[in-house]
Amino acid sequence: MATIYDLKPRFQALLRPIAGRLVHIGATANGVTLAALILSVAQGAAIALWPDARWPLLLLPITLFVRMALNAIDGIMAKEHGQKTPVGALFNELSDVVSDAALYLPFALIAGVNAPLVVLVVIVSVIAEMVGVLGPMIGASRRYDGPFGKSDRAFAFGALAVLLGIGLTPGLWTTLVLAAMLALAILTVWNRARRALAEAAQ
Q1: Distance of CA 158 to the CA centre of its chain
Q2: Angle of CA points 189, 1, 151, to nearest 5°
Q3: Which among 184, 180, 174, 158 is positioned nearest to 40, based on CA atoms?
Q4: d(CA 106, CA 85)
Q5: What secondary structure letter does DSSP report for 167?
Q6: In this structure, are residues 29 and 80 in contact, taking their beta carbons and an 8 Å threshold?
Q7: Distance of alpha carbon 2 from alpha carbon 173, whole angstroms
Q8: Is the bond preceding residue 51 a cis peptide, omega within 30 degrees?
Q9: Structural domains in the chain plus CATH codes
Q10: What is the largest CA-CA distance in the chain?
Q11: What is the distance between the alpha carbons of residues 8 and 14, in angstroms, rounded to a whole number?
Q12: What is residue 12's predicted lDDT score, i.e. its pLDDT?
């Protein structure tokens, strides 16, 4: 199933020169991963501290784009510049999960937004990432199947943030959007598990 993740090769091609320059000045892939994590936690904290303010929500899409760029850059640095390490692999996967939780859980603090649904979306998304990571343990590859991978979640929550940030009042529509996110996250868990098992069986 198609997902925004499929655009990653083109995105990486645009960022490859930046990655090369960062390596040239002595930056490391783990340092870039750490920067993305700090940025995500700071953005999430802004929404959590000012849940009634519009500016943190309107800032979120920019933060998500920068985070996505940093995630692509650290991957290029690790794979193409000899910086790939076991520590970096663990840190990369853990930071992705922590960043998602930090960025999206604060939506539960916004008045009128269905808090239990927000929490469920984040929990099921973490499970989806765990299923993806467990692929190599059963003889399959790391699974990135959709329809609600990391990039898709970023797009969905970024769009939701913009709608709330421009003044739309939370209500039934936000509940329906979150319910759709939850359904897509559950489908993602199923797809990743099914395809990992199928790949391992081959």
Answers
A1: 11
A2: 70
A3: 158
A4: 32
A5: T
A6: no
A7: 25
A8: no
A9: 4-201 (1.20.120.1760)
A10: 52
A11: 10
A12: 82
Which token pair is 85?
């390490």
Helices 86-104 and 55-80: crossing angle in degrees, nearest 10, is 170
Tokens of 166: 């421009």
138 vs 196: CA distance, rounded Å? 8
Are 77 and 135 in contact, with CB atoms under 8 Å apart?
A: no
Under 8 Å between Cβ of 135 and 24 = no
- Cα distance between residue 58 and residue 171, in whole Å: 19
Q: The whole model's pTM is what?
A: 0.93
| Residue whose pair of structure tokens reads 């990486």 in the numeric block | 12
Helix axis angle, 172-201 relative to 150-165, nearest 10°?
170
Average pLDDT over every residue of 161-173: 98
pLDDT per position as a tens digit, 25-71: 999 999 999 999 999 999 999 999 999 999 999 999 999 999 999 99
Closest CA to 6 of 145, 201, 185, 99: 145
Q: Give the Cα separation of 97 and 164 in Å (integer).
A: 24
